[in-house]
Amino acid sequence: MKENKKAPCPKKTYKKVSFELKLFVIAQIQNGQISANHAAKKYDISRSSIQYWIKKYSTLEQKKNGMSKKSEIKKLKEKIEELEFVKDFQQDIIADMELITGVDMSKKSLPKTLADEIQKKKQDRLNENG
Fold it and tell me: Which of 23, 39, 47, 110 is deepest in the core (most CB within 10 A)?
């Protein structure tokens, strides 16, 4: 019987990559200048390493900015409330203007959903005033 002796697989050696190069590669990928695959080939780095750097970098950025996902959601909800208040205020002004002038500006210049909301506000105003 013949024995097949297989040569051992050569171990891949990895080079140490500087933090600056990691940030540079991540920035290029996030700016859309190159893809992760292209970066892996260009800089002779494994794709999994690049994916790992991107994941670590995003959490590092969040910590640096001091903003967790929960606080970001809270901030966005507050902004939504503020914008809804502004929208309601503007609709009230438009509705009052239309009642005073008798001209339906909202139907001509606003999307249908907003114009309908203003019409409802006008009806509410008319019902309040009798």
Answer: 39
Cβ neighbours around 79 below 10 Å, total:
10
Residue 67: predicted pLDDT: 59
Is the pTM higher than 0.85? The answer reads: no
Residues 25-57 as b or e (16 or more Cβ within 10 Å = b) = bbebbeeeeeebeebbeebebeeeebeebeeeb
**Coil, strand or helix: which one is 32?**
coil
**73, two tokens:** 């959601």
The answer on pLDDT for 58 being more than 70 is yes
Handedness of CA 87, 93, 99, 105 (dihedral sign): negative
Answer for the pair 29, 36: CB distance below 8 angstroms, yes or no: yes
The Cα–Cα gap between 92 and 20 comes to 54
Residue 3 has pLDDT above 70, yes or no: no
Given this model, what pLDDT does residue 76 score?
93
